[in-house]
From TrEMBL:
This is Spermatogenesis-associated protein 20-like TRX domain-containing protein. Residues 1-22 have a biased composition (Low complexity). Residues 36-197 form the Spermatogenesis-associated protein 20-like TRX domain. InterPro entries: 6-hairpin_glycosidase_sf, Ssp411, Ssp411-like_TRX, Thioredoxin-like_sf. It comes from the Eukaryota. Residues 1-45 are annotated as: Disordered.
Length: 753
């Protein structure tokens, strides 16, 4: 299926002669022979393609120079290891010799791991939505040799696949069409691509455009920002219109559903705000409405097929509104953020003053935290991996990996592992059917025939009545069954492939979640509670030692070298440097780790990281000097990438929109407010305020998708909540009280020595 954009280009093209090549450092006859360079990458996903016949190239100046010298369009593939459709594409398409030969002859093929280059993924997903109303992975992109986009599409089936209209709809067909377009109508293609790039640059740089904002971007007090607390109420009202009252979650009927930690956190934080905020946003009734939406969603998710009920952790998304048809990949960062949200739900929803193991969300919090410190997720060096794949071998020695097989069960397996009596109760509890529980309409190709996706279909009280057993006995049987099923799964099945990249930002998310969870786990006597802080500190130390390195290209203060953060570790630090989100989430994790340990080393490192983030990514109004540009607007806020780039045609992303997780600008503003209070540094607070001001128009017009930054408006208006320790002997008791409170507006612990 061709995009509307490509069809327009083909019908409007006038067949003009190709333009002359620009200045080239190499002629096409001087270039070295092309070869597959995927094995050179530290990315596990990219290196998986080393045995394909495609001559994969890295995203580099050398590759772009080759495209210009050969005047070949660029084909770019963006994917990630955990995704099942990416796995299928590699297996069925990139191993196909006909596809590979055509790609190698007529295009310059570039492969990108979305987790290594999240900037490229975000930019070109936006482009794909704009021209095709399609996003997702794998993402197929076509560019002129100057890196101007002219076509995009998401998953394309195996070569030879025919669509409902009777026409071929595979990648080879798209390659052939785009090759004809380039050969026959190159000039028109270039002109259209240049226009697409211009529109894309505007689309991905909210908070930077129009540039006329720049001269007025400096903010010194909350009165300098136009957005107000009233917009919090408007956001809640708009979110309520997207809420699914039956299954929880947000979106339009029939659309896939994603856990949305950013939105859920925003809704839960409102009940922790003081009365001055509650009154403005509609009083207790509106706050209760926001809280109910979050709690219902979290409750539905924890009982659904989205959750791994045996080994814990949540899958990335569900293709159905009831959460019971998951895409089986587990993203570690998503699970860390969900841990923080479930912790807030537990802390804020407890009955009475004491936490108990029987509280509604206690099992999810403890299970998620234990999952994150398990050997599958935390490596021996202390770093946390990025994901577990959706696909795996069912048993050792099998030749083909299949989707979700690690998490599926038959009723017969339940009988064999648990015995008939326990099996009947466990099968009823997890909705396990003799002929499987996946409806035919959700499984047209019989991929899950006779298989069951576990979900908590029946409650323990209902089972107690049905089987005439005490509730306590039902609990015991379910707990025992879970242990037996986990042991069987670990012994008999092959765990899904893991993406072993230790990403700085993802580790910051896990460090934060574990640091915040420790006090609650300890309060209910959980056996692993002490491990949470130890594991968080071990990860922080590894990132400090392995990814916080000297920058040989810059000179720091006193003639020394600046330190910079690298994006990830995988048998060594990546050449790719960290993005602003890596800094922001790592700083947040270190601040939470400091509050859990009172160790100043983490606080001081957080400040060093913040200084580096400000230097590399902050769009300072004072630095623009009246001459804003499209890569340095001087309007406040943080870009996601550094100023320097291998191509000026890669837009510099600047956004405060929450794409399921909190935006980099939201997290950065919160960090700056916290650091500003701890160190009594007004400069940090001013940068936070300028960051909010940079997105004033977006916050007022599209408040419901900028909710994390909107939460910082509350801090801007009311200030940071400071918990002061005047007496060191009281530090631990004050800390324990602080750690057993759900998050509201920005809050810090000050005065600790």
């Amino acid at each position: 299926m061709m995009s509307a954009q490509l069809q327009q280009q083909q019908s409007a093209a006038d067949g003009a002669a190709p333009p002359a090549l620009g200045n080239q450092s190499l002629g096409s006859d001087e270039l070295p022979p092309v070869r597959n360079r995927a094995s050179e990458s530290k990315s596990p996903y990219v290196s998986l393609h080393a045995d394909t016949p495609v001559a994969w190239q890295p995203m580099s100046e050398e590759t772009l120079a080759r495209a210009k010298a050969e005047n070949k369009p660029i084909y770019m593939h963006i994917g990630f290891l955990a995704d099942h459709l990416c796995h299928i594409t590699t297996r069925d398409t990139f191993h196909n010799p006909t596809v590979a030969a055509f790609l190698n002859e007529h295009f310059v093929p570039i492969i990108v791991d979305r987790e290594e280059r999240p900037d490229l993924d975000a930019i070109y997903q936006n482009y794909s939505v704009a021209v095709n109303s399609i996003s997702g992975w794998p993402l197929h992109l076509f560019f002129t040799p100057d890196l101007e986009p002219f076509f995009a599409n998401a998953y394309l089936p195996a070569p030879g696949t025919v669509g409902e209209d009777g026409e071929a709809c595979d990648l080879l067909t798209i390659l052939q069409s785009n090759h004809r377009l380039w050969v026959e109508k190159e000039q028109k293609c270039r002109e259209e691509a240049a226009k697409e790039l211009e529109g894309l640059e505007k689309f991905v740089q909210e908070g930077a455009l129009p540039l006329a904002r720049a001269p007025n971007a400096t903010a010194t007090s909350d009165s300098d920002i136009e957005v107000d607390l009233d917009h919090v109420e408007l956001a809640v009202s708009r979110i309520a219109k997207l809420f699914d009252p039956v299954h929880g979650g947000f979106g339009q009927p029939g659309e896939p559903k994603f856990p949305n930690p950013a939105r859920l956190s925003f809704l839960l934080r409102l009940r922790e705000c003081p009365d001055t905020v509650r009154d403005v946003i509609g009083g207790d009734e509106d706050v209760e409405r926001a809280t109910k939406m979050a709690l219902q969603t979290l409750s539905k998710m924890k009982n659904s097929g989205l959750r791994d009920h045996i080994g814990e952790g949540f899958m990335r998304m569900s293709s159905t509104s009831d959460w019971n048809m998951p895409h089986f990949e587990k993203m570690v960062g998503d699970n860390a953020l969900l841990l923080g949200v479930y912790l807030d739900a537990w802390l804020g929803n407890r009955k009475g003053t004491q936490l108990t193991n029987q509280d509604e969300f206690a099992d999810v919090v403890l299970g998620l935290a234990d999952y994150l410190i398990s050997p599958a997720i935390q490596q021996e060096n202390g770093g946390f991996i990025s994901s577990e794949a959706a696909y795996s071998y069912y048993r050792k020695g099998e030749q083909h990996m299949t989707n979700g097989t690690f998490y599926l069960w038959t009723h017969r397996e339940f009988d064999e592992v648990l015995g008939p009596e326990a099996s009947n109760i466990a099968a009823a509890y997890w909705n396990v059917q003799e002929d499987g529980n996946v409806p035919q309409e959700r499984d047209p190709s019989d991929e899950f025939l006779n298989q069951n996706i576990l979900s908590a279909g029946n409650g323990v009280h209902e089972l107690s009545t049905q089987h005439g057993l005490p509730v306590e006995e039902i609990h015991r049987i379910i707990a025992s069954s879970k242990k037996k099923l986990l042991a069987h799964r670990d012994k008999e099945r092959v765990r899904p492939p893991r993406d072993t990249k230790i990403i700085a930002g993802v580790n910051g998310m896990v460090i934060s979640a574990l640091s915040r969870s420790q006090a609650a786990a300890e309060a209910v006597g959980h056996s692993k509670s002490a491990e949470y802080i130890k594991r968080a500190e071990k990860a922080a130390q590894f990132i400090f030692d392995s990814l916080w390195l000297n920058d040989i290209n810059t000179e720091g203060p006193n003639g020394g070298q600046h330190k910079v953060l690298h994006r990830y570790w995988n048998n060594g630090p990546s050449e790719t440097l960290a993005f602003a989100d890596d800094y922001a989430f790592l700083i947040e994790g270190l601040l939470d780790l400091y509050e859990a340990t009172l160790s100043k080393r983490w606080l001081n490192w957080a400040q060093d990281l913040q200084e580096a983030q400000n230097r590399l990514f902050y769009d300072s109004p004072s630095a623009a000097n009246g001459t804003p540009s499209r890569r340095a607007a001087g309007s406040g806020g943080f870009y996601s990438t550094e100023l320097q780039t291998i191509s000026s045609n890669i837009p510099r992303l600047k956004s405060a929109m929450d794409i399921l997780i909190p935006s980099v600008n939201a997290v950065s503003a919160s960090n700056l407010y916290r650091l500003g209070s701890i160190f009594a540094e007004q400069r940090y607070k001013q940068i936070a305020l300028e960051t909010i001001k940079a997105f004033d128009p977006e916050l007022m017009e599209h408040h419901w998708i900028h909710q994390s930054l909107l939460a910082n408006v509350i801090t801007a208006k009311l200030g940071v909540e400071e918990v002061r320790i005047e007496n060191q002997d009281l530090a631990q008791s004050q800390l324990a009280e602080l750690r057993l409170r759900a998050r509201g507006r920005a809050r810090v612990l000050v005065g600790a020595k």
